[in-house]
Design goal:
The complex is a heterodimer.
Chain A (H helix, E strand, L loop, with lengths): L8 E7 L2 E9 L9 H5 L6 E5 L3 E3 L2 H17 L2 E3 L5 H15 L10 H35 L6 H11 L4 H25 L6 H39 L2 H7 L4 H40 L3 H11 L2 H28 L4 H33 L2
Parallel strand pairs in A: 2-3, 2-4, 3-5
Antiparallel strand pairs in A: 1-2
Chain B lengths: L20 E10 L2 E11 L4 E5 L6 H8 L7 E6 L2 E2 L5 H8 L2 E4 L11 H12 L4 H14 L15 H12 L6 E5 L7 H18 L2 E5 L3 H7 L2 E6 L4 E6 L1 H7 L3 H7 L10
Parallel strand pairs in B: 3-8, 3-9, 6-7, 7-8
Antiparallel strand pairs in B: 1-2, 1-4, 4-5, 9-10
The chains are: A alpha/beta, B alpha/beta.
Chain lengths: 373, 269
C-alpha cells in the first residue's frame, strides 16, 4: 500500500484490420480504468487480440473489460482472440457471460386490477385478524380473571409508568394548547355578540365531550401504540415470541394483556388530566384577552359541565386506550422479521389506531345522540 | 485476484513485506470488563485463517475490533503495514476498501434487491457506470451461484442463499481480505459444506485472504491453513498453528479437548 500505485493500461496497436490490445499495469476496480470505446477510437478492426504484457495486478475490472471487448466483437462479427489471457480470467469472463444470460423470474410488477383485488382481500384478512385478536384477548382476559396469579403485574406497572406518567408532559402541552386555541377561536365570534363568558362553555363542552379524549388518544397512538408495535415486532425478529410459544406461553397472556390493561387504565387518567389542562388554557386566554376573571370562568364551566359529559369523556378514553393497545400489539405480532418489517408495523399501528378511534368516535356521537346523553 | 494473481508473462511485482493483517498487543474491553488482552498475531496474504474458541471467548469481539466496529483500549491493527486503528478518516476509508465482511446473519439490507445490495459498495467507491456496475453484480452473484437473482429481495431467499448473497456483497470491491463471522451459523451441514467449498473456490480463484471466526470443527479441519484459539479464562490466545497438528501435539488440554470435541474423533469431508 505504501508503494507508488500504477494504473491500468490498455494500449491498442492497429495492423491492417487487426487490433492488438495490450493490457498492462494494475487493474483495480476502485482506481481509474481504461474505457474500451476510447481504446477502440475510430478504428473498426475485423479481429481483436488481447495480450497482457506488463500486467501487474487484476481484479473484476479486467474481467469486465474483456467481457466488453468480447461483446463488441460479437456485435460487429469481429474475431476475438483471448488465448493469451490467463485461464482464470477467461473462466471468469465466461462466468460473467453466463450470469448475464441467466434470469430467474421475479415479477414484482402488478396492474391496477390486481392491486384493487389484493387490497380488498387484504382488508378482509385484516378485519378477520383484528376480530380474531380481539377474541383471543377476551379469552385471555377471562382466563386471567380466573387465575390472576398468572398475570404479569410487574410488566403491567412498568407499562403504566411508560404510557401514563411518562406521557404527562406531551399530553399537558397538547391539551393546554388545544384549550388555548379553542378559546381564541370562540372569542372571535362571541365577542361580537357580547357573549364573552360563553367561551368557557365552548371550551369546557368541546374539551370534555370531544377534544380531551381524542387528543389524548392521538398522542398515545403516536407514542405508545407505535412503541408497542416496535417492541413486540423486535421481539418477533429476535425469535423471542417463538421462544414463548415453544414454552407453551401464549404471547397474548405474556405480552398483550399487561400492555392492554396498562393503557386501558392510564388513558382515562390522562384524558381527565388533559381536560383540566384544556380548561386552564381557555381560562388563561379568557383572562388575558377577554378580561373574564378566572373565578367567573370557573363558575360558568361548572354550570355547563355535568356528570354525563365527564362520563362521555371517560367512556371514550377507555375505548380509545383499548383500541390503541390492541392495534399496537396486533401490528407488532404481525410484523415481518426484519428491520423494515418492524418499521412498517410501528407505522401501521399508528395509522390503525387513529383510524379506529375516528370510527369509534363517530359511533359514539350517534349512540350518545340516540341515548340523549 | 489481486496480489496473488501475477501472470506468468507479467513483470514480477515486488511483494509487500508486510503481512496482510498484523495485530499487536490488542486489548478489548466492554466497560471495565477485559475480554481480550495482549492479542498478537499476523495473517499472511492469501492465507485461510481461523479464529476459534468456545462460546463467549471473544471471537466476535476480536472480529469487531479487526474491522473497526470497536476501538481497542490498547494495541493496533495493521493492514498491509498500514495502521488501521489510529488511521485518519481518509486512510481509514482507503483501508476499508481492502476488506469485505460476511456477517453472521448476512446483514443484507432488507429494503433493497440483491442487485442494489451488491452494487452499493461499487456506487460508494468506484466511478463505474450503472451498466458496468450491473455487470460486476452479475459476475459476483454468478461467483456465489446466485446468477439471475438480481431482482430478488433478501426476504425472498433461503438462509443459505442469503449467506451467499452476503458473500457476493462482501466481494463486490474485490477486497484483498474477507472476514467471516460464523459463516456456518444457522446452516444445515450440506449447506455449510457448500459454503466451505465456495470459500475455497474463491480463495483459489481470487487469492483472497480469508479470516474466519468459527467453532465449526468440520469447517476448521476442511479449510484452515492456520488457527488461533482464544480462551475466555485466559482472555487471550492459548494456541496458534495448523489445526490437525495442534489436535495431535498440543500439551494444553483446553486445545485438544476443543479440537477433538472432548476426545471424540472428528470426521471431515
Amino acid at each position: 500500500m505504501s508503494m507508488v500505485p500504477t494504473y491500468a493500461r490498455a494500449e491498442a496497436t492497429l495492423e491492417g484490420d487487426r487490433l492488438t490490445v495490450n493490457l498492462g499495469g494494475a487493474w483495480r476496480i476502485t482506481q481509474p480504468l481504461p474505457a474500451w470505446r476510447k481504446v477502440l477510437g475510430e478504428s473498426r478492426p475485423r479481429a481483436v487480440r488481447l495480450r497482457m504484457d506488463g500486467l501487474e495486478r487484476w481484479d473484476s475490472s479486467l474481467v469486465r473489460f474483456v467481457h466488453e471487448v468480447q461483446s463488441w466483437c460479437r456485435t460487429t462479427d469481429a474475431a476475438c482472440d483471448t488465448t493469451a489471457l490467463p485461464e482464470t480470467v477467461r473462466r471468469l469472463v465466461e462466468q460473467l457471460a453466463r450470469a448475464q444470460e441467466k434470469r430467474v423470474p421475479s415479477d414484482h410488477s402488478r396492474n391496477f386490477l390486481t392491486d384493487v383485488g389484493l387490497a380488498a382481500t387484504d382488508l378482509w384478512r385484516q378485519t378477520r385478524d383484528f376480530a380474531d385478536f380481539v377474541g383471543e384477548c377476551t379469552l385471555s382476559a377471562i382466563g386471567l380473571v380466573r387465575r390472576p396469579g398468572r398475570f404479569r403485574w410487574r410488566d403491567c406497572f412498568a407499562e403504566m409508568q411508560q404510557c401514563g406518567a411518562m406521557a404527562v408532559p406531551i399530553v399537558s402541552l397538547s391539551s393546554f394548547l388545544v384549550g388555548l386555541t379553542l378559546a381564541y377561536t370562540g372569542a372571535i365570534i362571541l365577542r361580537q355578540f357580547g357573549g364573552d363568558i360563553w367561551v368557557a362553555d365552548i371550551v369546557g363542552l368541546s374539551t370534555f365531550r370531544e377534544m380531551g379524549a381524542v387528543m389524548t388518544g392521538v398522542v398515545i397512538a403516536g407514542r405508545t401504540g407505535a412503541a408497542f408495535a416496535a417492541q413486540i415486532g423486535n421481539m418477533k425478529t429476535g425469535e423471542e415470541i417463538d421462544a414463548l410459544e415453544t414454552l407453551g406461553i401464549p404471547p397474548v397472556d405474556f405480552l398483550v394483556m399487561p400492555r392492554l390493561l396498562a393503557l386501558t387504565l392510564m388513558t382515562p387518567l390522562l384524558t381527565m388530566y388533559a381536560n383540566c389542562l384544556g380548561i386552564l388554557g381557555g381560562m388563561i386566554v379568557s383572562a388575558s384577552v377577554l378580561a373574564i376573571p378566572p373565578s367567573a370562568y370557573w363558575i360558568e364551566t361548572q354550570t355547563i359541565i355535568d356528570l354525563s359529559d365527564i362520563s362521555v369523556s371517560l367512556i371514550k378514553s377507555v375505548v380509545f386506550g383499548m383500541l390503541v393497545a390492541v392495534a399496537g400489539c396486533l401490528r407488532g405480532l404481525q410484523a415481518e422479521r426484519s428491520a423494515a418489517g418492524v418499521g412498517r408495523a410501528a407505522t401501521s399501528a399508528v395509522v390503525t389506531s387513529i383510524l379506529l378511534m375516528i370510527v369509534a368516535d363517530a359511533i359514539f356521537a350517534v349512540l350518545f345522540n340516540v341515548l340523549g346523553i | 485476484m489481486n496480489a496473488n494473481h501475477e501472470p506468468k508473462t507479467g513483470k514480477p511485482e515486488p511483494e509487500p513485506a508486510a503481512p496482510a493483517i498484523e495485530v499487536e498487543g490488542l486489548e478489548c474491553r466492554y466497560g471495565d470488563t477485559v475480554v481480550l488482552s495482549g492479542i498478537t498475531f499476523a495473517v499472511r496474504e492469501g492465507e485461510l485463517f481461523f479464529v476459534i474458541g468456545g462460546s463467549g471467548c471473544g471471537k466476535t469481539t476480536l472480529l469487531r475490533h479487526l474491522i473497526g466496529l470497536m476501538k481497542p483500549v490498547k494495541g493496533a491493527v495493521r493492514y498491509f503495514g498500514e495502521n488501521f486503528t489510529d488511521a485518519d478518516l481518509a486512510v481509514r476509508r482507503n483501508l476499508l476498501k481492502t476488506f469485505g465482511v460476511l456477517y453472521q446473519n448476512s446483514a443484507l439490507w432488507s429494503s433493497m434487491t440483491l442487485r442494489e445490495n451488491v452494487a452499493l459498495p461499487l456506487e460508494q467507491y468506484t466511478t463505474l457506470s450503472r451498466r458496468e456496475r450491473d455487470e460486476i453484480v452479475a459476475l459476483k452473484l454468478g461467483q456465489v451461484g446466485l446468477a439471475g437473482f438480481e431482482d430478488y429481495f433478501p426476504a425472498e431467499l433461503s438462509g443459505g442463499m442469503k449467506k451467499r448473497a452476503g458473500l457476493a456483497r462482501a466481494l463486490a470491491l474485490d477486497p484483498r481480505i474477507v472476514f467471516f463471522d460464523e459463516p456456518s451459523a444457522a446452516l444445515d451441514p450440506v449447506m455449510s459444506r457448500k459454503l466451505d467449498e465456495l470459500i475455497l473456490q474463491i480463495r483459489e480463484t481470487l487469492g483472497t485472504t480469508m479470516v474466519i471466526v468459527s467453532h465449526e470443527l468440520a469447517s476448521i479441519y476442511a479449510l484452515a491453513d492456520r488457527v488461533i484459539m482464544l480462551d475466555q479464562d485466559a482472555q487471550g490466545i492459548i494456541a496458534e498453528g495448523q489445526p490437525r497438528k495442534l489436535a495431535a501435539t498440543s500439551d494444553d488440554p483446553r486445545v485438544t479437548e476443543f479440537l477433538t470435541r472432548g476426545g471424540e474423533e472428528v470426521r471431515t469431508a
